[in-house]
Design goal:
Elements (H helix, E strand, L loop, with lengths): L1 E5 L2 E5 L7 H8 L18 E4 L2 E4 L13 E3 L11 H9 L8 H14 L5 H7 L9 H12 L8 H4 L6
Parallel strand pairs: 1-5
Antiparallel strand pairs: 1-2, 3-4, 3-5
The structure holds FE2/S2 (inorganic) cluster (2 copies).
One FE2/S2 (inorganic) cluster binds next to loops.
């Protein structure tokens, strides 16, 4: 049995203490925006915020989360997709298959909370989530756009070459 504060709601869940937090978020609570990728804290698909820091929920035991810890999932980032990171993601059309993107957005939101005007180096250091579709250029551009620092050019010239016949 555990008591968890997820997206501002306190939930009682019947699970063993060593159950990964990701399982509880998806299976017990039914919030499926947070994804399972590697299960070993490498890919970032399962990223959530705990007390404003980005954490990989596949590798956190529910028993190690306190009832007072504030967990935020992609569903709780904003009520209507109005978070600046979500708006920039939409404007730049970042996702390709989309699978990694909730984790990417959570990592970007946590970065901007800590560092509202990140440099390219800050973004590269903080955004270690893996994207198998290779959307890294657009992710970086969207983080800049969300930060309002005028570099949100979409990164498309490097990533999407024009086909010529
Ligand atoms: S599923 Fe958690 S880091 Fe990959
Ligand atoms: S958009 Fe497909 S894995 Fe990132």
């Amino acid at each position: 049995m555990a008591k968890l504060n997820i997206n501002g709601k306190v939930r009682d869940v019947q699970v063993e203490a060593d159950t990964p937090l990701l399982w509880v978020i998806r299976e017990q609570v039914g919030l499926t925006g947070t994804k399972y990728g590697c299960g070993v804290a490498q890919c970032g698909a399962c990223s959530v915020h705990i007390n404003d820091a980005v954490m990989r929920s596949c590798s956190i035991r529910v028993g190690d989360v306190k009832p007072t810890d504030k967990i935020v999932t992609i569903e709780g980032l904003s009520s209507n997709s109005s978070h600046p990171v979500q708006k920039a993601w939409l404007a730049i059309d970042v996702p390709q298959c989309g699978y990694c993107q909730s984790g990417q957005i959570m990592a970007a939101a946590a970065l901007l909370k800590k560092k509202p005007k990140p440099t390219d180096a800050d973004i590269d250091a903080a955004m270690t989530n893996i994207c198998r579709c290779g959307t890294y250029q657009r992710i970086r551009a969207a983080v800049h756009m969300a930060a309002g620092n005028g570099k949100g050019n979409g990164g498309r010239s490097a990533e999407t070459p024009t086909r010529r016949s």
